[in-house]
Design goal:
The protein is of the alpha+beta class. It is built from twelve helices and 14 strands. The strands form four sheets. Strands 10-12-9-13-11-14 form a six-stranded mixed sheet. Strands 5-8-6-7 form a four-stranded mixed sheet, with helices on one face. Strand 3 and strand 4 form a beta hairpin. Helix 4 runs parallel beside helix 5. It is globular. 38% of the residues are buried.
Length: 375
């Protein structure tokens, strides 16, 4: 036997076997099978790229080099940094996508995708520079996925970062009809001397909680179980939610805190640490921004828990500590400031239309929240 390095096919040394192989190939070619027959439409993929081009261009920054359609995205570092540090983050939207599929509403989950990444990058003081997405589906529905990318572009504009590129993968048989999955990747930049790493946090500092817009993008496996077990419809309008449809409330996108927080630092507010409150809630995420031998004495009565969390707790019979360990409970982001900066910080975020609350104080400890309910 031999390997034909030009054609890439295994061939036989004897003429009769070569002839047999040739006849078999000829019979295969009679079928005229194409990639589309396997469920992948290359032409539709090209048309989709053309359709989203304007959305992508709406997010551009001066540092972007080139355009959409290359093998890679190019970005020049911004001028003015002495010791630039690049900061990266990646995340997804999770099973919140299941609700988007059920409602056939796809223009907000892209905002969630961007938010989950840029808010993480923000916690060390970094400005998000560019964003990449990965979108996988069983069948490329141009209208559906254009709505998704529209949301991603909106999120990028809200965060001030460029949608530099992405990958759309059509994978027949891998997903249920009409379903897709998302992943996002963000890169930001911060001056090394202003990077927040926990060492700036001091005993006596105050934790300022910034309001969330709702459930954001965590805890939806529990939400969906409650909906299923109790036979709720996403069209139901619970009195506790002010007669808003459940689907509308649950699909409310994740708040993007980038511009208000960076603006606070630029305005001279002294921020010592930051935390993005995602999966694991305040107990898991707030201690991640602390220094050694520090804890947070939390005041759980210092803010009003939004009605959607009250509804989840009541309908699911979820304990107070179970709620805190799963959901943001109305606090989507936390900044740590000195005591003399509390009033100015709360006023600043109020001016940015984000409610802010003094929710706790940094104390000596072992990296936990003090004041949580036992059950």
């Amino acid at each position: 036997m031999c390997f034909d390095s030009i054609s890439g096919f295994l061939c036989a040394e004897y003429n009769d076997i070569r002839l047999l192989n040739y006849i078999q190939v000829e019979s295969w070619s009679d079928r005229n099978m194409e990639y589309r027959d396997a469920g992948v439409d290359v032409e539709a993929g090209r048309a989709f790229v053309d359709r989203i081009r304007k959305m992508v261009n709406s997010t551009t920054r001066p540092e972007v080099v080139g355009g959409l359609g290359g093998f890679s995205g190019l970005f020049q570092l911004p001028a003015g940094y002495q010791e630039p540090v690049l900061v990266s983050g990646t995340d997804g939207v999770g099973t919140k996508l299941k609700l988007a599929h059920q409602l056939n509403r796809h223009d907000t989950v892209g905002i969630d995708l961007v938010a989950m990444c840029v808010n993480d990058v923000l916690t060390c003081g970094a400005e998000p520079l560019f964003f990449l997405d990965y979108l996988a589906t069983g069948h490329l529905d141009e209208t559906q996925l254009a709505d998704v990318v529209s949301g991603i572009a909106t999120g990028c504009r809200l965060a001030g970062c460029a949608l530099l590129g992405g990958e759309t993968a059509e994978m027949p048989g891998f997903y249920q009809p009409g379903e897709y999955d998302l992943a996002g990747f963000c890169v930001g930049i911060v001056e090394k001397s202003t990077l927040l790493d926990g060492s700036q946090v001091q005993i006596g500092d105050i934790a300022i909680g910034l309001a969330s817009q709702g459930v954001h993008s965590n805890g939806f496996s529990l939400v969906r179980k409650i909906l299923s077990d109790r036979a709720f419809s996403l069209d139901d309008r619970p009195t506790l939610l002010g007669d808003q449809p459940l689907g509308d409330v649950l699909l409310t996108p994740t708040q993007i805190y980038v511009k208000p927080v960076l603006g606070a630092r630029q305005a001279g507010l002294e921020i010592h640490g930051m935390a993005h409150i995602t999966g694991g809630g305040l107990p898991e995420n707030l201690p991640r921004c602390l220094g050694l031998n520090q804890s947070v004495q939390i005041d759980l009565d210092s803010w009003v828990v939004p009605p959607i969390f009250q509804w989840i707790a009541a309908e699911g019979g979820v304990s107070p500590i179970g709620m805190l360990n799963t959901f943001n409970m109305g606090i989507g982001f936390v900044v740590i400031v000195p005591p003399d900066q509390v009033a100015a910080t709360i006023e600043w975020f109020g001016s940015q239309e984000i409610a802010a609350y003094s929710i706790g104080q940094i104390v000596v400890g072992n990296g936990e929240l003090i004041g949580l309910p036992e059950s």
